């Protein structure tokens, strides 16, 4: 993919040496931790579902090859994996494609949004239009900094072009849907669990060390290392979506109580 | 150990329907022949529908429970995986509108036998006595047609039936104790206790939650796996699927799973005659019934009534008051997240295990009516990543970076009372679902009191998180739990049903779910829905045949039928304190 | 009729030693059985509270330990009680402990994964040996019922056949010139007591191992009971084999175990106080903090060892 090496190194950096980190099989602070190594302790149904997710990457059926390529470039910035080696990148676009192909969703749609399928197609067009308007070329041909600037403008709710499209759908709702989909594909994968130290499936065997963040015998202790996002990225700092302080416009789902 | 003894766990080759690792349904379920009239049809087998179904079956009525989703076999169908639990929710489309629109799906809905109780976190506090008369006391909202003392014996009964674990002395509202002991807590509970203790706020440790602390009959003790809201495969967490439905089936009830009820039919003499439904193959049928109980929760119940409009009820069945779909409520459920220097690992132990109701009642000094509770939550990675997305605006490398700190974060859920408003409502959209039935469109706005309450409560919750020693505290706006949209009351002009769930307009049409609650308090509604359902059932059973052949409305308080509880209710647990 | 403590109870250390050696400590052993029963009763009360008394049978050890405590105390005051009520209660309590052991094994089996996940389910399930450990005080009570009282007049008299009134002697046919009950009566049960020490050390050491393992051995000191328990077991076995070991190793290791239990008790109190909420959540923190009385039960194994070292060896072969 030509954009990969367009401008500068995309890998995160060790702040002490200034050298890039990775690519490696398992980023994160839990070296050697593997949830998949515990699969014999999972119930059969869960093991089937999780192994299917790992071993059977769904084919692209909803998006056209061009759309898929564009979305891939976008997801590479929305959820960058440049510290992961090629064999351990977590597939994101195939999961989004599967969801849209099956037309599954979270059970609701904002009144200011078209159906998810249309929203993704519109969003891809909108991103290309911004790329054309701002840089005079397609998103795929841009370097990481320019790509991040376009995505940052969606994050901030201030896209510079494609206004016809953003009239049809609320830009921050599209942005949240895009990030959510990427996050869901990434953090539903056992390799991501290993990265963040999450214990994974827990039935029939569960936990015995509940307090003080203690590790189970089969979990790993945290071993932190310093890293910084690459200088050519914009996504390393935190700003509220669309600059909003109050987010009831797009309430979240997780952590039910 | 590298593997369990005798190798990996495999799926067992067994025929029986499993509800947890031990409980099974052995006897074949009774099937009513096509065309046969039954006594009751119940639409939706969730918190309310499950309880009323069990009571009616045990009392000898011929009853069918319809559910749009599957009749879960927890061993075969459920997974110990966040993404894989997606099918537990009502994922059919709804349109959400308004200035402060609601989220649905995983947030507040269930599809399948057990309804939302299969994925509730199972906090089971009672309402406070003040919740039943907030119009009289605070000049806001609506008074219930019943008082706390009407519901109290049912609360006590349901706390035994589920059962509910918690402290032996719960100090808020009407002080009481729980029949099962409090749970050991994970890191998040410890953080809440720490923060509250620092600030001198009383806090309840280890409950009240409807999760077994101690095995009971064929349900094992909790194993603290933290996947409560993905469906409890252990069978320790109560859901009507495992607590009430097995007894209903044992007493001759039929569950028609994967059957979507599309319409309630009105016959002569302003009486309903049965329901139309789509079977799993998509064929439409009619089921004749002497009475119909709608228990589809706050979106599907009004949707079904509105979709059942007919001559005489052009605005929707039983909607002469124009209250069907109105006064929908959600609780404010902001999630407050704090990062700690030490590890927390909040995925361990049930997400629900400690709470404080210290701010539950109206305090004039705060400048708004009613109050809120603070509870523990334990988001798993996907939920947490989305929270970081909204609470911090994280994406890209920022998201990757904060997610690597997942184990350092703890989360509280603020649970605030939003007042009922006629404009917060369920209507029908233009769009139709896969059966051709118009889908629900829900409009939701926050009003002045709600906004003040959320602002105050959110800040207080963050204060507790800081007090516990967090280095960074963020929050995201969110809603929890729906109730209302077919509220009960004494006046037929301003409510849909009477205090026994009977619609004011039609004497053999009942509603028995969260939608009949006129206000919501700051307590998770599950236990209240079940207690109301048990009370509705007592009314139906005491009136017997009269409901089937008379339009007379008997408002006498029914005697409480403790003998109709599921058999495992008795002979377990501890004596409780009751004031 | 309760006998008042005899003025002759005040005696010199030598006399006390002689009393012990000759089995004249029924009063004191009864009392110790009663007091240790209070400890294990409190422990089982809150452990079963953690299990919500979900089965009615879970009340039985709580009730029995209360009864045994009363039995022990009345055995202190009354010889008749020490010979009747105390052994009866002890036998019922022992039977209850064995029943409890069955239910605990079954409870582990009924946890998800059952015995296929032995470590996790033993740690998180009902404590497997706790019901048997609970039987230790019953064992002491049972022993006490055979002993003599220090003020009894047969001091220094030649051994004579066992007290015929003791009903437990009828459980076995005793034809030997010197019977087991007579050995007990005369303080000649060092080997038996050493064996009891071994068993008790095993149970409480095992409990210490898995509960400290559950806690990931966060403090180095948590290893001490795990190390001392096998030492005590070895010393106990040695004492069975050799009189010499019974008088050297056994009392030394036993004293160590008692000190260790005392120190552990202090650490466990500190652990409870340090929990979130501390003293503001006393009941919660006691039930979910480190088990307060477990180290004392460990110390009790040491006490058994110490007692054994002071006794005489069995005559009966």
* Unreliable residue stretches of chain B: none
Q: Please state the overall shape of chain B, judged from the principal axes of the Cα atoms.
A: globular
The most extensive contact between chains is:
A-B, 85 and 109 residues
Q: Name the CATH class of chain B.
A: Alpha Beta
* Total strands of chain B: 20
What structural class should be given to the helix and strand makeup of chain B? alpha/beta
Q: Which structural class best describes the helix and strand composition of chain C?
A: mainly alpha
What is the multimeric organization of the chains shown? heterotrimer
Mean pLDDT of chain C: 85
The overall number of domains of chain C is 2
Topology, number of strands of chain C: 0
Notes on the structure:
The complex is a heterotrimer of chains A (257), B (579) and C (317). Chain A is mostly helical. Chain A has one domain. Helices cover 38% and strands 1% of the residues of chain A. Chain A has eight helices and one strand, in the order αααβααααα. Chain A has helices at residues 44-55, 65-78, 93-101, 116-135, 144-155, 163-168, 171-187, 190-196; one strand spanning 109-110. In chain A, helix 4 (116-135) crosses helix 5 (144-155). Chain A is globular and about 55 Å long. The termini of chain A are far apart. In chain B, helix 1 (47-58) packs parallel to helix 12 and helix 5 (187-199) crosses helix 11. The model of chain B has no long low-confidence stretch (mean pLDDT 95). In chain B, the strands form five sheets. In chain B, strands 3, 4, 7, 8, 9, 10 and 20 form a seven-stranded mixed β-sheet that branches. In chain B, strands 6-13-14-15-12-18 form a six-stranded antiparallel β-sheet, sandwiched between helices. In chain B, strands 5-17-16 form a three-stranded mixed β-sheet, with helices on one face. In chain B, 23% of the residues lie in helices and 18% in strands. Chain B has one domain (17-569): FAD/NAD(P)-binding domain (3-Layer(bba) Sandwich), CATH 3.50.50. With 579 residues, chain B is α/β, with parallel strands linked by helices. Chain C folds into two domains: 12-154 and 181-187; 189-317, no CATH class. Chain C has helices at 13-21, 26-50, 60-77, 79-83, 85-109, 118-124, 130-133, 135-144, 180-185, 190-214, 224-241, 243-247, 249-274, 282-288, 294-310. Chain C has 15 helices and no strands. Classes of the chains: A mainly alpha (257), B alpha/beta (579), C mainly alpha (317). The B-C interface holds B 1, 4-6, 9, 21-22, 165, 167-168, 179-182, 184-185, 190-191, 193-194, 196-197, 203, 205-206, 212-216, 220-221, 223-224, 233-234, 571-574 and C 49-56, 107, 110-113, 115-119, 124-125, 275-278, 280-281, 283-284, 287-288.
